[in-house]
Amino acid sequence: MRTPSTRTDPNPRRRRPRRWLVAGGLLVGLGLLMLFALRSPPSPVGYFTSAASQDRFLAAYKRAMADMPQPDRTLDLRTSYGVVRVYHFAGAAPAAIPLLLLPGRASASPVWADNMSALLGVRSLYTIDLLGEPGMSIQSRPITSAEDHARWLHEVLLALPESKVHLFGMSIGGWTAINLAVRQPEKIASVTVLDPIMTFNNLSVEAIVRSLPASVRWFPKAWRDSFASWTANGAPVEDVPEAVMIEAGMQSYALKLSGPVRITEEQLTALNIPVLAIIAGASGMHNSAEGAETARRLLNPGEVKVYPQASHAINGEYPNEIAADISGFLSRIEP
Questions:
Q1: Are β-strands 138-139 and 125-128 bridged in parallel, bridged antiparallel, or unpaired?
Q2: CATH 3.40.50.1820 given to domain 17-333
Q3: 304: Cα separation from own chain's centroid
Q4: What is the pLDDT of residues 35-46, one digit of tens each?
């Protein structure tokens, strides 16, 4: 496997997103809407719909992982809700608290390919395949509430050797991080969220409407690609390894878990963990100005940054800027 090199761009604010893949992109339709009404009944946990579908996804996952650096450890951690796949990547400041990265819906660890080089210059990293999503994690118990989402992730943190971790989540991964922090914060040193959904405000009506076709596995592939492209403000997604993996997961994996429930203002106000909220100013998923205002008003301690031209695919559009902001944030909150 090869380690992606740091790309330069004379105009980084207009960098074309390649592997952003789904800072949530495929994220919404999959979990929040009709998918749950349309899902088939046979199993109470997520599953691949056929052996051929699983083989297709695994091949796409393997290809997408080729764009990641080589992990020095691969962990399969058993929780009450299933086995969770975690990768560890040794980076800068090995004695410092590591970052644990939570991807968007249906995107799994390879979604971070564009971010790895810059982030490894900040800290050692863990990446995780969300439980109940297409990936290498295997769900074995129903996940039916926000409490369930928090419990399985808390059990993952308890299984890690470090006494604390910094959580970093994009899109639904941002919601997952905050959802844990407001319920079981014991091992969390800080939280960074990247254009999180259902955290500081609700989804936009347009996001809900556009996600409907992407929510149905048997609809044409072009409809899922169209939704993914929309989340990146029109950027093409065909033939990008991470996009191919995500589309394969959307088409072949039956989700069986509850969607994210809006984090309440009372929960955010009571949160006593440093939070860095990075908001995509041009995201179609929600009203970015409203979300940023809510975050500034409620997070204490907290910092809020808005990238005015960023889409919901912000992680692949601004990888170096994001890493620099995280590095500065950690330097301010750590002794």
A1: unpaired
A2: yes
A3: 18
A4: 444 444 568 999
